[in-house]
Amino acid sequence: MIFSTQLVAGEFNKYFIQDVRVCYDENEKLSLKSFFLQNCKTMPLGEVKLSNKLTWIGTTFDIDAPELIDKPIGLFFSAQAAAEFYFNGELIGRNGYPSSQPDEERPGVMDFVTYIPKGLLKQQNELVIKLSSHHKAFDISRSIGLAIVTYYDSPQDIVLRHYLPTLVPLGVLIIGFVFSSLLVLQDLSSRRNAFWLPLLSLLVALQLLTEVSRGFVAYEYPYHEIRLMVILLLGTLSGLSLLLYIIDGFVKNHRKSCFFLSMLLTFIFIYLGSTIEDKTVLAIQVPAGISFLITAFQVFNRQGNTRKHAGALFIFFIIIAVNPNQFLDLYFYYFVAALLLFFFVQHAIAYKHEQSQKQIAQQRADQLQQALDEYSEQQTPSKIKLNLSDKNELVSCDSICFVKGARDYVEICLIDERNVLHNETLTIMEKKLPATFLRIHRSYIVNKQFIQSLQKLPSGGGELTLSSGDIVPVSRRIMPKVRKQLM
User: Quick one: 240 and 213 in the same domain?
Assistant: First the structure.
C-alpha cells in the first residue's frame, strides 16, 4: 500500500493510508481534541493490534485545491472492529458502536464506506478513528485490512470489482469439474487418480466462492475469521487432494504411507505459519512441493509420462515461493486454475490414448472372432431354410454365391447356377447368414469365399468379380469397409 501526504485534486482517484498514529485508551481519558497531543506510536496500518480496550488511530494528509474535486468522496475502511470516524474534528460516520465495555459494543460490518462531506475537505486534513474489537473470536489475521480515501461507492461494489477478474479461473474450475466428473461417472478413464481431479476442482471452486462471498454479503466482523477458517480448511483439503492425485497416479508402492507422511508434513508447516494468510498459502505450497519431489523422482526412474507433471508442479511451487503474500490475494486462483487446466489436458490426452487402445483391441478381437467364425463355417457349413414358391428347401450357406434384394423378396444366386426367390427381406437375410457373408450394397450381400477381385470405379464405388463369373456392385459408402475386410 502507498501513502501520499500530498493529494492533488485534479489527479484524485484513490489514496491508501499506510502509516498511522496509534493510542490505546486504557483509562478512557482520550478524546478527539487531545488525540494529536498524545505521545502515540506511529506504525503501519496493517500492524495495528486491537485489544480489549478502546484504540484510537489517526493520520494527517494534504489535498491540493479540494474545491476542484467534482465527485463525492468517501473513506473505505475494512477492519475487524466497531468504529467511529472523525474528519477534521467532525463525526462523519459510525460502523457499529465502539465501546470500552464488551456488552456495550455493537459490532460493525467488515467492509464499510462513510461519506466525507465536501464542506469538510481542506488543504490540511485530519482523520481520526475510534475503535473497539471485543467480539473478535480469534487472533489469526490482521485487525485492520485497508483504509482508502476514494470516490464514494458501495463497499460491496468496491470489493466485487477487486474480485471480478476471478470469474475467469472460476469458469475454468467449473468446466474442469464437469469434464473430469463425467470421466469418473461414466467410468471412461482407467487411471487410478481420476477421482481426485474433480474433487480438487470442486474444493478450489468452493474456496474461490467463499473468498468472493465477501462482495455479496455485508457480514459483521466476528464472522470474518470464521470465513478465513473455512478458506483455510478448503485450501488444506485442496492440497491433500493434490497429493492424492499425484500419489495415486505416480506412486506404485506404499501409497498410504507416502500420503500420511506427506499429510503430516503439510499439517506441521500449516501449524508453523504465523498468520492465517501464511497458513493458507502453505496449505497448497507444501503439497505442491511434495508432489514435485514425487514426480521428479519418477522422472529420475524413467517411469511413464511424468516429466510434464514435474515441470508444471515445479513452476507452480516457484511462483508461490517468489512472493507468497501477493500469490494468495492476486494470483492464487489463476495459477491453481492453470495447473488444473494442465491436468485436464493431460487427462484428455490420456483418455484419447486409452480410447484408441480400446478401439485397436476391439478391432483385433472382432477380427479374431470373425476369423474363428469363418473357419468354423468352412469346417461345418451351416444351412438356411429357403421359402420357395412351391416348397421349403434347406440350402447349405457355402453354396450361396450372393443375395440380391428385390423389395419384400430376395433373389439367391447358388453355385449350381440356379437363381431362386425367397420371401424375406435383405435385412432379415443379413441377420441369418453367417460371418462369411458381407453386405456390400443396399441391394447385395456376397459370400466372401467366392470373391476373386475388387475394382474401384471413378464414382468412388466399386465392383466385385466372383468366381461364379458374376459381377456385383459395391456402394461408395461401404467401399472402405469392403476393402478392409478383403485385406
Answer: yes
